[in-house]
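R.M. (postdoc): so does anyone remember the format we settled on? I'll just put the structure tokens first.
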């Protein structure tokens, strides 16, 4: 069992260590890479994974609903602690609500569960990002304008993909007699 756990977790940590050591030595400017990742690669991942025939909306509906509950519930649970600790809710609550389910969760899901785990994890990643770039932005900035939301590529990928969900539900055909 230890071998299986190491086989799942070790590759992710090796990549993290290599990236950390590289960044400490070279000190690269990651601005362009981050912008490409957030504006092109992550939306493409959301679109391709959710529009694929492997993604079953019906099978993942409860998981997606539960992820909304976890994110919003975490914010509701963190609110009294922010007040108790006299912390600014705009800096305290969002980290409690939004985890790193993309960078860590996606590779771990693939290594642990294969394509089925990846599909489910992309659903969680999508819900988390959708809430982060809507509720999270609004939580931090009450004056956020609708235009800021409409310019977000991840939101567009989610909206465009959700329109194709009925076609992406797998079905079986029975041979005609």
């Amino acid at each position: 069992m230890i071998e299986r756990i190491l086989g799942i977790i070790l590759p992710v940590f090796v990549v993290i260590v290599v990236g950390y050591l590289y960044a400490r030595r070279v000190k690269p400017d990651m601005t362009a890479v981050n912008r490409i990742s957030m504006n092109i690669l992550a939306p493409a991942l959301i679109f391709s994974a959710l529009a694929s025939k492997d993604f079953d909306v019906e099978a993942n509906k409860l998981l997606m609903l539960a992820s909304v509950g976890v994110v919003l519930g975490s914010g509701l649970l963190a609110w009294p602690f922010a007040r108790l600790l006299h912390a600014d809710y705009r800096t305290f609550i969002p980290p409690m609500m939004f985890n790193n389910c993309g960078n860590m969760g996606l590779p771990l899901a693939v290594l642990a569960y294969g394509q089925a785990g990846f599909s489910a994890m992309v659903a969680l990643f999508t819900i988390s990002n959708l809430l982060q770039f809507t509720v999270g932005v609004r939580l931090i900035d009450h004056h956020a304008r609708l235009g800021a939301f409409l310019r977000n590529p991840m939101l567009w990928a989610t909206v465009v993909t959700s329109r194709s969900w009925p076609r992406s539900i797998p079905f079986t055909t029975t041979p005609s007699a």
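R.M.: ...and that's the designed sequence above, right after the tokens. Also worth knowing: The helical segments are 2-26, 31-51, 57-84, 89-97, 101-140, 146-150, 153-162, 165-168. The chain has a mean pLDDT of 81.
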